[in-house]
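WARN no homologs supplied; continuing
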Amino acid sequence: MAKVLVHNKVVSQDQIDAHWAEANDQVDIGLVLVRAGLLQQAMYEKVLAFVKNLEAKNAAAAPARPAAQPAAPAAAPVAPAKPAVQAKPAAPAPEPESEPALQIEGNNIYGESSSSNMVVEKVSGLETTSISSIGISTESDAEEADVENGELPSRFAIVSGEGSEVMAPETLLPTMNLKKVIAFARKFGATDIYLFADRQIMMRQSGAIFPATEQALDKTRVAELLAEAAEGFADGYKVVAGKNFSKTFGLPGVGRARISVTWDDVNPSVSIRVIQNESVSFDNLFLPQFCQSFANLPSGLVLVAGPSTSGRSTTVTTFAEMIAASRPCYIHTIERPIERLLKNPNGAIAQKEVGLHVKSGIAGIELAIRDGADVICFDHLESMEELNLLLQAANAGALVFAVTGGNNIHALISKLLMSVPETNRSAFACTLADQLKGVIVQHLIPVVQNQGLVLAVEAMRVTSTVANMIRRCDISQLVAAISSQKDQGVTLDDSLQKCVESGYIDGAEAWKRAYDSRRFAAYRPA
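OK structure emitted
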């Protein structure tokens, strides 16, 4: 199977070599590549069927294959026993033309030199693929091999996007370059830009999407804008059609942004998140006042959760800047990817991007622990192994801020506890209870009539009562405990109630997000 995949250029030999050790009697190399995301399931099934058919043909033909007769190629093969009655055999059906056999030399399992014949056939549908370069020169085979094997790029300097400010146009046109598009978005407070073929340039402002141009983009124009964004990739990443990716980039004069690209065959769909250039003060986060004390903790774990695009990364960045301004320390961030560049006037700061500076989030955490970081900011949690390492770092004396998912504190803590096997749950719960110092869950909700966004937040400082609940793996009364903490906690439902009573949001928005939706049953949509 490996030879067929490489011969038909479905995968590279380097990819085969990198994952060969994972194959065994139950899992072949093709299935390993499928699980690694390097081979599509449909293509694997097609190749597997071809290989099985080829093996069956070879097995059936091997015992009856006569010795070659080079001197008389037209003569009939000699039969092992002459029959009593000679009958002229019917003319055999013409055999399809096949590629000549290749002589493969190597070592057998005992280390002895051996050789064997191999017939290489082309599989219909595997001669070519739809992967091709878009607007960017191709890489050398060696560079491609490094990328496919997960090697870190040789270029890793972060592009700041600093330079002479690009003036934003009053009216945006599809023919304008990407710098003008981003400058326009910044001028009008748009957080996201969407570029799709045969669609207008769309932007998101205050949670609502609106068209920013009258004319639509064509496929060529989207590819050109994508190629312009690629000029700001810090690692020199080459865009390849059909390969989804998400990266940050910087263009001189317009700052930094995060781009996510998906594909419809060879046509890209581009989403760009505009990253704020200016820092955000704690007061402008509108978090409960007691949350400010999290920046003064000597060690422990603080979780910042919420839905996507709820400002979690901004909150963690603000805490990092508060700490940097208040005391000398070494701050280490691990991000997917790096968004805003930070400064530490009273100490040192290291910002590591997964895939650019470190191979994985786990490798980044291990590096931070080895370097003796005082503060670790991790954005964002994707596995329990990462959380366990962060708990180890907190136990060793570091103050850890971690971004994760979750709509409320009860659901978040419950998910963490239930994610651990029952045999290890008690030990994990004790560690979590000892190291967890605070939790913030935030929701950015559109204000009525699209006048902006307002924050609804659930937050708590972990008291001895809450820690004991976590230690016992019994959090049924957690929401009541948060509500009773007065100046040390606020529930999501109380925060939503204030937003509704103040006229910021519709009651239906509160009903949709509430922990106890019965509290907002009167606002339930018909």
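The chain has three domains: 1-57, 141-145+153-274, 283-523.
OK
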